[in-house]
Amino acid sequence: MMAPLLEEEENYVRLALLLKGVAPRAVRTYFDREFPPTHLPSTLNTNYNTLQDLKLKRVLNQAQWNLLFPRNGVPDSITSDVTGELNSNIFCVIGVPDFITFDVIDVINYNSFDVIGVPVSTTFDVTLMICLIRNLTSVTQPINGFDRLPLPVETTPGPDLARIKWYRNILAHHDSNKMATGDFNTAWSNISDAVSRLGGQPMNQECQELKVKILDQSNQEIMLEIKQSQEKIKELGQTVDILGTEHSEVTENLRKLQDSHNTLQTEHTEVTELLKDPIPWNIRGTL
User: Fold this and answer.
1) Helices in 94-180 by DSSP H: which ranges?
2) Mean pLDDT per 10-residue run, the chain (287 residues)?
């Protein structure tokens, strides 16, 4: 049986559960208010050029793009054109009453919709949702931008999203599985207040319960997985450092080879010029 967690370890686990379990749902609640699910596909299509520009700037990666446009990056409007053409052909070919034709079209549209797939916010992570809110809505930006912790007096949705984003980054780069109680209380207050404002009273209640609930065996297993993940991250970091050193050495060797190559080219040019005129210049003058 796993030993009970220390208080500072519990602090870390509780904050992880808040940021990875509750906070994303609060962000999604606000996201769905800004982008109603029934209109999400058309909204993304309308802003296709803006999103494509974000992809070119590498603000959006390919995995995120595939979630926004599940049909290999093709906007719904193109699919609609194809479906419209298909519908027109059915009207021309099928000589049956209109209501039967409409039934056939509905079946085709339903099947096309199901096979092709549409974007849904439940597949979006916090990073993607905040990116869309920042770039496609008129949300008020925090005074110091989205990449810094907002001031305590900033309590509108924009700063609250920035708070969650900031603390998630802090947790991701935290080099220990412990958190001092003072730091924990400050972080918890900031995050839970933001979650409550974005997600409403039910999520406020959920935050309060999570802060005092007894962490069971499954939560302790999460802690063990976190510890193991941190060890793997450290190992990967060491590997990256080694690869960086090796890359620098290879780059230096390539530079030396390039210098040698340039020297050889110069010498080759000089020899070639000499071979063009086999009579030395000092002798040529006496002939």
Assistant:
1) 98-116, 126-136, 157-172
2) 76 92 96 96 95 95 93 50 42 39 37 58 95 96 94 96 95 85 96 96 93 76 66 74 80 86 84 69 61
